[in-house]
Amino acid sequence: MADIRHHIILRECVRVLIPVILLFALYVQTHGDFSPGGGFQAGVIFASGLILYGLVFGQEALLEFAPLHILARVMALGWLLYVGVGFACLAMGGNYLEYYVLNADPLAGQHLGIFLIELGVGVTVAATMVVIFICFTARQLPAPADD
Amino acid sequence: MSVLGSVFSLLSAGLFVAMDAVDVAFTEAAVGAGVSLVFFLAALALTEHEETPVTRGNVFPLLVAVLTGVLLIYGLLEAPPFGSADAPAHLHVAPEYLSKTEAQIGVPNIVSAVLASYRGFDTLGEAGVIFTAGIGVLLLLNGGLPKGKGRE
């Protein structure tokens, strides 16, 4: 691949696009109850924004923004949030993942539960996609000297 | 091939929109047409140009594949005809979800309600599968879990 620093049009277009992609991902994430989409789609869109960043500006820039060890923890954190919501329902007297008990108003409890688990799914999916991308493309770079 | 697959995904996303399955179309466009193409190309770049010659016999894998296919087709024999309106799925749960979601969950997007609330356990398992995939790729390709800066 030619040196990416010469592709000024590509770089500037991507620079404009990435914030829009990330913002759209957040919209899909938080608006999933009312419009198409949800945690999974939002996670993939968010990850695609980061992957685009990695493709255009290089692996090092992406790793500087999102180091692998942090991504791995975020990945686990999302799933733990999901599991934790389930246990929170248990602790508050309901069945596992029965959101009615999360709030005095059952419907508000449902909203809260759905929002939280969608957030967990989104975070896990986004981190996982970026991790897979980094792992797949890291092999093509020369191995780091300290490894 | 992978580029064609991506194009196919995008086209089928349009098809899903036409069939009012916007959530599925969304997923198809984001995953099938977007991210998976990048993954496929990255994976292709990892592989070598020439196939490793097969030294072992391939009768047993063929047997497994054929057996699985036969089992799947056998299972399909019991399934209701494609598109039939009186299939069990259309008689019990679907009308119930459609009519009761508004009162029970209070969420306008029924797909979200089904995925996150009625079928919360399934989605929990799905998120677990994705998490497992990420951990697997990390362990296989990265040679272990990444260490934090402070622990090296």
Q: Structural class given helices, strands, pairing of chain A?
A: mainly alpha
Which percent band covers the strand fraction of chain A? under 5%
Number of E strands of chain B: 0
Q: How does the overall form of chain B come out from the CA principal axes? A: extended
Number of domains of chain A: 1
Q: If interface size is counted as residues with C-beta under 8 Å from the partner's C-beta, which chains form the largest one?
A: A-B, 55 and 48 residues
Query: What's the total number of strands of chain A?
Result: 0
Mean pLDDT of chain A comes to 84
Please tell me how large the radius of gyration of chain A is: 19 Å
Distance separating the two termini of chain A: 25 Å
Provide mean pLDDT of chain B, rounded: 82
Report the radius of gyration of chain B as a whole number of Å.
21 Å
The coarse silhouette of chain A is elongated
Total domain modules of chain B: 2
Number of helices of chain A: 5
What keyword list fits this structure?
heterodimer, A: 147 residues, mainly alpha, 72% helix, B: 152 residues, 2 domains, 71% helix
Describe the structure.
The complex is a heterodimer of chains A (147) and B (152). Chain A has 147 residues and is an all-alpha fold. Chain A has helices at 8-30, 39-57, 59-65, 68-91, 106-138. The two termini of chain B are 42 Å apart. Chain B has helices at residues 2-18, 22-46, 59-77, 88-91, 93-104, 110-118, 120-141. Chain B has 2 domains: 1-47; 86-147, no CATH class. Classes of the chains: A mainly alpha (147), B mainly alpha (152). At the A-B interface, α2, α4 and α5 of A face α2, α6 and α7 of B.
Write the layout of secondary structure elements.
The complex is a heterodimer of chains A (147) and B (152).
Chain A: H1 8-30, H2 39-57, H3 59-65, H4 68-91, H5 106-138
Chain B: H1 2-18, H2 22-46, H3 59-77, H4 88-91, H5 93-104, H6 110-118, H7 120-141
Helix pairs in contact in B: 1-2, 6-7
Task: Describe what is shown at a glance.
The complex is a heterodimer of chains A (147) and B (152). Chain A is an all-alpha fold and 147 residues long.
